[in-house]
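During the no-cost extension, the postdoctoral fellow (Dr. R.K.) reprocessed legacy sequence entries with the updated structure-token encoder. One reprocessed record is reproduced below for audit purposes.
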Amino acid sequence: MSNGRSKGSVNVHKHQRVGLPQKSSRRLASIAQAAEEYGVCSKTIRRYISAGRISAFRFGPRMIRVDLEEIDAMLYPLATAA
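Re-encoded structure tokens follow.
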């Protein structure tokens, strides 16, 4: 009995994302939480997302999360006068 699939076909669930890197050290936070954590306005976080400076992840139709580890990686020390 045939199930309509050719031999060697890949069975992928319709909601499964393919091609996203697996990162176990992700610390996800809402836009408001990230803004509070780094002392900036939530509009700044949204601008960084729009500009592609940080990645955002959508869970459902409205919930957006950002990776705090990714924001941490953007931080760099300022040079001081010697």
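Residues 28-74 form one domain. DSSP finds three helices and three strands in the chain. The remaining legacy entries will be reprocessed before the final report is submitted.
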